[in-house]
Amino acid sequence: MYDYLLGGNHNFEVDREIVERIMEFQPEVKRIAILNRSFLRRAVLFMLNNGIRQFLDLGSGIPTVGNVHEIAQAVDPSSRVLYVDNEYVAVAHSQLILEGNENAAMLHADVTLPGLVLQDPLINELLDLDQPVGLLAVTLGHYILDDQDPLGMFAAYRDAVPSGSLLAITHLTDDLEAIKGEQLRQQMTRTQNNIRLRSRSEVLELFGDFELVEPGLTTTSAWRPERGGQLPDDAALDALYAGVARKP
């Protein structure tokens, strides 16, 4: 679905049908996806500018338009990226896309089981958890339902990385009046992924004791917009809180 919104070609008819239904009551959804992807790019570049050269992308889906390894390796070809997802089609497509890239890989695992993810041999093969890591949880948290212990899950990943690591999060919210959260939630029940929209204070909890960098927790378009770039007329339509935080 996300790939379709971004104009990619790694999607299926069922994905396109659900997106079209969502657009009937939330026509801004394509804009929301594009702004989120733009945030991801800026967050990865920010991490690179702060010396990060290895990334753990949780719940990555298919590495589609403007993916992490392309952004990072364009700056430094030695940058390493490990994607993690549990959806079979996403994993299969990702492995094809990443074939021949020695510094990027896809781990087929459930991110809600951080103990298993962090003990997987592929982690140690590709990443050095004694050195700062760029943790990416972009459009992930709202797929983690309350009974899956999102606070404990995020805490486990935060605890696994050393001081100087950076964590980027975007998360759907219905704090913003323009977002039809209940309709969106109901529509997503038709897919394999239910969602849990969260308030600003709930999203802040996912960062734990990591220290938010300026401008703090804001919306995707308002987080460090590129100089000279044109800001959207109404950031309330972003639908996603966004922030990056550093481990002390």
Question: Can you give me a brief rundown of this structure?
Answer:
With 248 residues, the chain is α/β, with parallel strands linked by helices. The chain has one domain: Rossmann fold. Helix content is 38%, strand content 16%.
Explain what you see.
Keywords: Methyltransferase, Transferase. Pfam families: Methyltransf_19. GO terms for molecular function: methyltransferase activity. It comes from Actinophytocola gossypii. It is a single chain. With 248 residues, this protein is an alpha/beta fold. The chain has a single domain (2-223, 234-246), classed as Rossmann fold (3-Layer(aba) Sandwich), CATH 3.40.50. 38% of the residues lie in helices and 16% in strands. Strands 1, 2, 3, 4, 5, 6, 7 and 8 form an 8-stranded mixed β-sheet that branches. Strand 4 (134-138), helix 8 and strand 5 form a beta-alpha-beta unit. Helix 2 runs antiparallel to helix 9 and helix 3 packs parallel to helix 4. The chain is globular and about 45 Å long. It starts with a helix and ends with a strand.
